[in-house]
Write a structure and sequence with these properties.
alpha+beta, Nuclear Transport Factor 2, Chain: A, 2 domains, six-stranded mixed β-sheet, 17 strands, 19% helix, DUF2358, Reg_factor_effector_dom_sf, SOUL_heme-bd
């Protein structure tokens, strides 16, 4: 289901955007999405914690999209950006104390620093690394579980994360939010390789970068995670959020639609999906399997050229309205397939359709996806989005990644229990 800001109307929803419920092995998700404009506003205007400096502004205007790495400035040194972009001068404060800060007229080019971060931060975890000359020697770094006070420890922490977690950093936006503050929005995806099942850890949030007006260098870096309320150091909530992502779970090693997580809260995720193709037929209910043999038959060779294709995940069941009067069942085709060269279905009632992708909100849950459970989760997601100022559209889609008959029940139950604890809401399994 697509969503828009409260009190407003979202633009026309793309085909993918309805309410979605997804289920990897032992887990399910509910998704909602739209054409992207209102999601960008939501991602970039999320409230900051109360402890932020009063100088910080709370609004963003730049679209919240992953930015490609631009050509590095010559020498990879902040001091070589050019006098026309960064002329750093000492600020002479008025001794009388009655001169407003706005009259100080600093010569720091904040737009230049914003562009510098767009270029520099994507290198946080690659071999090139960030430009340390842009930071004060005693830069203060803090996130919910880490607190450092020098650039050397800051870089050591980055190196440690690279060794243990193999992180990938996605920068979505950079915006000046105060006289000497710049706020970034990002996603970090990590894999903990020391555990046999190699769990994936995902953190999204914002970083407030403080600038020393006397030097023009970054003197502080404070991270705020979307998934927790208490972002102070040392946050037990932050530790729990990390540990719960180390859980044992099993998903099939099959191809699945590609997406990037833009925001991960305690209750749902905001994702951007790339286009994919589905084969679909009429179904009966969200938790049902009517029509599955027909759509599965298409990829197993029941088509005009008798072509057999690789199995993929997930299997979708989609309701097109709130009363479940129209339900379809869908299977995702291999991503390399193109609508122009696909064989025609050999059976009536089977059709092919390209889903354009786009933004979606996703709520995960585990256990058997019975009809009342799915609808309960959909309602939870709707309430969470409305609480955050978004208006969900009609429709619901359940996506199942695993066959319940081959999933170990203790895995499904354990994950459900951890999700309930971390998300601080109560639910039951049928």
């Amino acid at each position: 289901m697509a969503v828009g800001p409260s009190g407003g109307t979202a633009r026309a929803a793309f085909e993918f955007g309805r309410t979605y419920v997804v289920r990897p092995k032992g887990k399910h998700h509910v998704w909602l999405g739209d054409n992207g404009s209102s999601w960008s506003q939501h991602l970039e205007s999320s409230p900051f914690p109360n402890q932020l400096p009063s100088s910080l502004g709370l609004s963003f205007r730049r679209p919240c999209v992953a930015r490609a790495i631009k050509r590095r400035h010559h020498g990879n040194n902040l001091s070589k950006l050019g006098a026309d972009r960064l002329q750093l001068k000492c600020i002479q404060r008025e001794s009388s104390g009655n001169q407003a800060e706005s009259s100080m007229n600093p010569a720091i080019n904040m737009d230049g620093l914003v562009e510098f971060l767009y270029d520099d931060l994507p290198h946080t975890f690659d071999d090139q690394g960030i430009d340390r000359t842009a930071y004060e020697e005693h830069v203060k770094y803090r996130d919910p579980i880490t607190k450092l006070s020098t650039i050397s420890w800051y870089l050591f922490n980055i190196a440690l994360l690279k060794t243990v977690f193999y992180p990938v950093f996605y920068l979505h936006s950079v915006k000046q939010t105060g006289s000497y503050d710049i706020t970034t929005r990002w996603t970090v995806v990590m894999k903990y390789m020391l555990l046999p099942w190699k769990p994936e850890l995902i953190l999204t949030g914002t970083s407030v970068m403080g600038i020393n007006p006397a030097t023009g260098k970054f003197c502080s870096h404070v991270d705020y995670w979307d998934s927790i309320q208490n972002n102070e150091y040392f946050s037990l909530e932050g530790l729990l959020d990390v540990f719960k992502q180390l859980r044992i779970y099993k998903t099939p090693c099959l191809e699945t639609p590609k997406y990037q997580i833009l925001k991960r809260t305690a209750n749902y995720e905001v994702r951007r999906y790339e286009p994919f193709i589905i084969v679909e037929a009429d179904g009966d209910k969200l938790s049902g399997s009517k029509g599955f043999k027909d759509v599965a038959g298409y990829i197993l060779g029941k088509n005009s050229s008798q072509e057999k294709m690789q199995m993929t995940t997930p299997v979708f069941t989609q309701a097109l309205d709130n009363v479940l009067s129209k339900v379809t069942i869908q299977i995702v085709l291999p991503l390399e397939k193109d609508m122009n060269n696909l064989p025609d279905p050999s059976q009536e009632g089977i059709s092919l359709r390209k889903v354009q992708g786009g933004m979606a909100a996703v709520l995960k849950f585990s256990g058997s996806p019975l009809e009342d459970v799915v609808l309960e989760k959909e309602m939870m997601l709707r309430k969470s989005l409305e609480r955050d100022g978004l208006r969900p559209k009609i429709g619901c889609l359940l996506a199942r990644y695993n066959d319940p008959g081959s999933t170990w029940s203790f895995m499904m139950g354990w994950y459900h229990h951890l999700s309930t604890m971390a998300n601080e809401w109560k639910s039951h399994r049928a």
